[in-house]
Write a structure and sequence with these properties.
With about 450 residues, the protein is α/β, with parallel strands linked by helices. The protein is built from nine helices and 22 strands. A hairpin with a 4-residue loop joins strand 8 and strand 9. Helix 1 packs parallel to helix 9.
Length: about 450
């Protein structure tokens, strides 16, 4: 049999009536029985759109013109919205955005996990603009434009969006994309700097310049001068993360505060992107898990101690487990720096069997899980074996949370007491959520 030909993308714009909204915030239309997902469209709208991709079961398109607008449509604040891939929901008001995310969570819990929370928590929200403290900015030297582009990549494209500013980045960086463009454009090899890692703490801004070729002394002087002028800590990264190093001696360790604790971190470490929301999230987690002075608490996927240290102030002992050795080292240092002596931290790959490890052979009264997008399915049997009366699950992917919730309820005898969303990434379709499970009986 011959190979199936790819359907040809229509060149002419088409008019579509939008009937619903997808989990990712795309409008949904039906054309001859086939679903079309339309970027930038809202239910109830008639739009003129351009097909962008065609698949066997569905197609994709983008809005060219809104001919009949929804009452929920608002004017996007960012002039780059629709081109830049960083945001997808700026045409919706913040309250509608968070309502959509709550709907997505509850629908997935129902359809995937076959569970319903006893209580739906009110959404956690913080600032909607200038909130983002962590980002990886793409860099591209474009000779035909005569300059360097610095920003996020275009939607569904490898190209870097031509941006003058970013509304969701902390304004200390979001308002300086053009200055960064000029800085890199003046380096000896602007075509050999592909990205900038942004990391911001309570005490300052760090920028890590990935350099595929050794910086000259003149390059380093330009970078140092930029850091001095804009009050930033400047690093270079000529290889892997172990090669990250400051370009000058005047660099302070980054830090942030949460629940009364001060946590230090390196620019390439994982930290929550939204500092204000993180404070509210940790406070909610403490209230839901309710650690007491006699409780042994297990914090899985603990990172550098974001939940562990606040928990340790309230519990008898906290054991944190994390797969990345560097984060475990930072967690230990942070506990010592804060004068906390009732913690221990271990390195372990939680996607592999852990029953033989010492920390996994004791009992815990309460457990907190904060896994990556892939979820915590592999470690759930061991978690259930601890017999903890309360289990708190913090999730960055509602699909895997729903799957794991089904396992905890239907296989391991837990009850889903409460669940809700947290707007860690306003103006994007990213859904952060939190769920409390209690042991039946």
């Amino acid at each position: 049999m011959g190979r199936r030909r790819k359907p040809r993308i229509p060149r002419e714009p088409v008019r579509l009536d939008i009937t619903a909204l997808s989990h990712e915030g795309r409008g949904i239309a039906q054309v001859e029985g086939k679903t079309v997902f339309v970027h930038g469209a809202l239910p109830g709208e008639r739009v003129l759109c351009q097909y962008t991709r065609m698949h066997r079961r569905y197609d994709e398109a983008r809005v060219l013109e809104v001919e009949q607008a929804s009452s929920e449509r608002i004017e996007p604040r960012c002039p780059h919205f629709g081109v830049c891939g960083g945001c997808s929901l700026q045409h919706m008001g913040p309250e509608r955005q968070i309502a959509l995310k709550q709907e997505v969570l509850l629908e997935l819990l129902d359809h995937v996990g076959r569970v319903t929370p006893t209580e739906v928590l009110p959404p956690l929200q913080a600032a909607h603009w200038g909130y983002r403290r962590k980002a990886r900015l793409a860099v591209k030297h474009v000779p035909r434009k005569g300059r360097v582009l610095v920003g996020f990549r275009e939607k569904h494209s490898p190209y870097v969006a031509d941006m003058g500013s970013c509304e969701v980045l902390d304004e200390r960086v979001g308002r300086r994309l053009e200055a960064l463009s000029e800085l890199i454009g003046g380096l000896s090899r602007p075509d050999r700097v592909p990205q900038i890692e942004v990391a911001i703490g309570d005490n300052g801004v760090a920028l890590v310049f990935r350099n595929l070729e050794t910086f000259t002394e003149q390059d380093l002087e330009r970078l140092r001068g930029f850091g001095t002028q804009h009050d930033m800590f400047i690093y270079q990264q000529p290889g892997n993360e172990q090669t990250v190093a400051p370009v000058s001696e005047h660099v302070e360790p980054l830090m942030y505060s949460v629940a009364g604790e001060t946590l230090h971190f390196r620019p390439t470490d994982f930290t929550q992107v939204n500092a204000e929301l993180n404070i509210a999230m940790v406070d909610r987690a403490l209230g839901m898990l309710q650690p007491g002075p006699d409780d042994r608490v297990l914090d899985l996927f603990c990172g550098l101690g974001n939940f562990s240290l606040p928990l340790a102030r309230r519990a008898a002992r906290v054991v944190g487990v994390e797969g990345e050795a560097g984060l475990v080292e930072r967690a230990r240092d942070n506990a010592e720096r804060n004068g906390i002596g009732n913690t221990e931290f271990h390195v372990a790959n939680l996607a592999e069997p852990v029953d033989h490890l010492g920390w996994a052979q004791v009992q815990f009264d309460k457990v907190l899980l904060d896994p990556p997008r892939s979820g915590a399915l592999e470690v759930l049997p061991r978690v259930a074996g601890f017999g903890a009366c309360r289990l708190l699950y913090v999730s960055c992917n509602p699909s895997t949370l729903a799957r794991d919730a089904g396992e905890l309820v239907h296989q391991y005898g837990y009850r889903l007491t409460s669940a809700g969303v947290m707007d860690m990434f306003p103006h994007t379709a990213h859904v952060e959520s939190i769920a409390l499970f209690e042991k039946e009986g």
